[in-house]
Amino acid sequence: GAVVSQHPSWVICKSGTSVKIECRSLDFQATTMFWYRQFPKQSLMLMATSNEGSKATYEQGVEKDKFLINHASLTLSTLTVTSAHPEDSSFYICSALGQGGIGELFFGEGSRLTVL
Amino acid sequence: KNEVEQSPQNLTAQEGEFITINCSYSVGISALHWLQQHPGGGIVSLFMLSSGKKKHGRLIATINIQEKHSSLHITASHPRDSAVYICALNNNDMRFGAGTRLTVKP
């Protein structure tokens, strides 16, 4: 089946630094990718929808200047957490929509961010 | 009211039992996904439904578009089925249920 790879799987950084998380579709082209965050024992929260070649659509309450999303190619979307703070510590997950109007959804392995 | 309501929130079963997890929603959708998240965080999409019923091994998923309701069934449950099961709506964006934490005891 289709594979979505996320990198890094975990990262620890100091407060004030920026962290970039990559999401790659390995064997298919993904025009749409989604970014989520998940707090412990809570469900996924959609942060933004990323469409290749256009600006991401952010969910209400998600700061677009804080969470920069770039989807420059059909196989790569990146999420950059800028000037990270401890409250940004979370599990970040991406997914990619398979080809076709309502294609299958494939998830990355997730990236655990800890901001000290 | 949430757009996606999942029930139950937590479910404990004995190995071999038949499991049902329900998902009700209030918006129009193009598809509904059932997801499985294991303790490590990895997520697998089990089913994508736009109508009817799908079966994969011991898993069965049904959807009733008119009633805006879907169910995930697990037959002959096994401890390895222990996970969080999440209902997700797909209609240009994604909406998630709160998840059902399933524990199957041997």
Any chance you could write out the topology, listing elements then pairs?
The complex is a heterodimer of chains A (116) and B (106).
Chain A: E1 4-7, E2 10-13, E3 19-25, E4 32-38, E5 45-51, E6 57-58, E7 67-73, E8 76-81, E9 90-97, E10 105-107, E11 111-115
Parallel strand pairs in A: 2-11
Antiparallel strand pairs in A: 1-3, 3-8, 4-5, 4-9, 5-6, 7-8, 9-10, 9-11
Chain B: E1 4-7, E2 10-14, E3 19-25, E4 31-37, E5 43-49, E6 52-56, E7 59-64, E8 69-74, E9 83-91, E10 93-96, E11 100-105
Descriptive keywords:
heterodimer, A: 116 residues, mainly beta, seven-stranded mixed beta sheet, four-stranded antiparallel beta sheet, 52% strand, globular, B: 106 residues, six-stranded mixed beta sheet, five-stranded antiparallel beta sheet, 11 strands, 62% strand
Architecture overview:
The complex is a heterodimer of chains A (116) and B (106). Chain A is mainly β and 116 residues long. Helix content of chain A is 0%, strand content 52%. Chain A is built from no helices and eleven strands. Chain A has strands spanning 4-7, 10-13, 19-25, 32-38, 45-51, 57-58, 67-73, 76-81, 90-97, 105-107, 111-115. In chain A, strands 2, 4, 5, 6, 9, 10 and 11 form a seven-stranded mixed β-sheet that branches. Chain A has a four-stranded antiparallel β-sheet with strand order 1-3-8-7, with no helix packed on it. Chain A is globular and about 40 Å long. The relative contact order of chain A is 0.33. The model of chain A has no long low-confidence stretch (mean pLDDT 89). In chain B, the strands form two sheets. In chain B, strands 2, 4, 5, 9, 10 and 11 form a six-stranded mixed β-sheet that branches. In chain B, strands 1-3-8-7-6 form a five-stranded antiparallel β-sheet, with no helix packed on it. Chain B is an all-beta fold and 106 residues long. The interface between A and B is medium-sized, with 23 and 23 residues.
Shape of chain B: globular
Report, as a whole number of angstroms, the end-to-end distance of chain A.
Answer: 37 Å
Q: Report mean pLDDT of chain A, rounded to a whole number.
A: 89
Proportion in helices of chain A: under 10%
- The rounded distance between the terminal residues' Cα atoms of chain B is 37 Å
What's the helix count of chain A? 0
Kindly provide the radius of gyration of chain A, computed on alpha-carbon positions and rounded to a whole number of angstroms.
13 Å
What portion of the residues of chain A fall into strands of 2 or more residues? over 45%
